[in-house]
Design a protein that fits this description.
Blueprint (H helix, E strand, L loop, with lengths): L1 H13 L4 H8 L3 H9 L6 H11 L12 H9 L7
Length: about 80
């Protein structure tokens, strides 16, 4: 779960979205959304689909080992570890 959360976080930051924006779009609280990014809660497939749609990616992007968006994010945000 942590890898998926890190990928979501990297893609969110790449698009300059706030955690609050994604939480509101998902209809959940910001603290619940933070747990998703930290891998501290199970995430439903329906939520993954919603997050993917908001971020403009396919759900499979969250599971890829080599993710160019995430790799670019490392450079842009000074070494954020996305896995």
């Amino acid at each position: 779960m942590q890898q998926i959360g890190r990928r979501i976080r990297a893609l969110r930051l790449l698009r300059d979205y706030t955690q609050e924006h994604l939480a509101d779009s998902l209809g959940i609280g910001q603290s619940a959304y933070c747990k998703i990014e930290r891998g501290q809660t199970d995430i439903r497939v329906s939520q993954l689909r919603q997050i993917a749609a908001i971020l403009g990616v396919c759900v499979t992007e969250f599971f890829k080992e080599n993710n160019k968006d995430a790799d670019n994010q490392l450079v842009k945000w000074g070494g954020v570890n996305v896995g």
